[in-house]
Amino acid sequence: MSVKVTGVDKHSPAARARIKAGDTLISINGHAIADVLDYMFYAAEDRTEVVCERDGKERKSVIYKSEYDDLGMQFDSFLMDQKRSCSNKCIFCFIDQMPPGMRETLYFKDDDARLSFLQGNYVTLTNLTDKDIQRIIDMRLNINVSVHTTNPELRCKMMHNRFAGDKLRYIKMMAESGLMLNCQIVCCPGINDGDELRRTLTDLYSLMPNIQSVAVVPVGITKFRQGLYPLEIFNAETAAQTIDVIAETQQKSLEKFGTRMVFAADEFYLTAGRPLPEGDFYEDYPQYENGVGLCRSLIDEVDSALKVAEYDGGKRKVTLACGTAAAVVHKMLAEKISQNFPDVELNVVPILNRFFGETITVSGLITAQDLVAQLKDLDLGDELLISKAMLKADEPIFLDDAHLDDVRRELGVKITPTANDGFEYLDNVLGIHY
Fold first, then answer.
1. What predicted TM-score, i.e. pTM, was given to this entire model?
2. Tens-place pLDDT, residues 359-374
3. Buried b (16+ CB within 10 A) or exposed e, 32-50
4. CA distance linking residue 331 with residue 169, whole number of Å
């Protein structure tokens, strides 16, 4: 295997070794280089022997650098290879429930173990081989695994992949090798909840302490499910039952290992109408990116921010638009803020998701067209706050490809995207922009 060098950083170890754009990287310390993991792993040593090919001739360079410093070579893509796509057709896959006509990148199903290590993505392991797993073990790569169930037959059914059950052995192989795994379970009522969830959590508990954390998240169902497996959403009763099943493993894991191991997504508590756990319940918030503890974290941070905040800006009216699930949390925060600052009025407007269907209740899946349609006739005050999760990470574009500036013009109001950070949240409500 080899990969083309497309650039070399100035003053880098590779530049000092006279490696140039257009060279082909053949090996590092005698190991063939196929992708970014090979490059990072084999180039970590302070003495690095690099073999490149130029004009049909191989050229060897011995580079001395600080351990783990990057060699400074650039490649055509971050992975130095193509992303690996998903080989499953999961019954709960959100991408299969997307309407046609959206931007192409939204339909790509990523299932790449390299991105799991580098960026925290979750992978099903179904497109990996024993050799791939051994490489992960040899390189000591802690990855995130989409488990869903440890019942082999049920996993095959849920993923619509006849190999999905057999690949469960990879979880045990990695854990027993000493790797630390984060896991995810997309829970579907009547399928992998109840006793099936209890079995899955028991099996994962048996691999402790090498399971760092497990997130149980509820299935999301859009209105675009024609021809797909019939699924139901959680209601107050089934959400409460799921919280109770999770609590069984939490208790025994806490007693034996000092960690609860498994956590329910915020949506379960909001759907069940149960109080959110306190902040210390979430320990170090290991599953924050999976929607576990976001609400509690925001509440606690706003409380901290209120203790030090000052405001003398006079009368101010702000609107906050959010998904229907978290509206109760934002309304509670609005009351706290008004008690501390009587001149500040924060109105919370839950947005019904008519684009994907009203069963989708999270803020991150709200589109520009739903925002405009449901806010255009309202008095939005001095400013409209929205969640940053509604926009692409690298540019202010909504899921329906509308630009934030277009929405500003349509609504005729200043719009400020706000992170799930209590201090930023309060600053934006008070109009304090740095």
1. 0.90
2. 999 999 999 999 999 9
3. ebebbbbbbbbbeeeebeb
4. 46
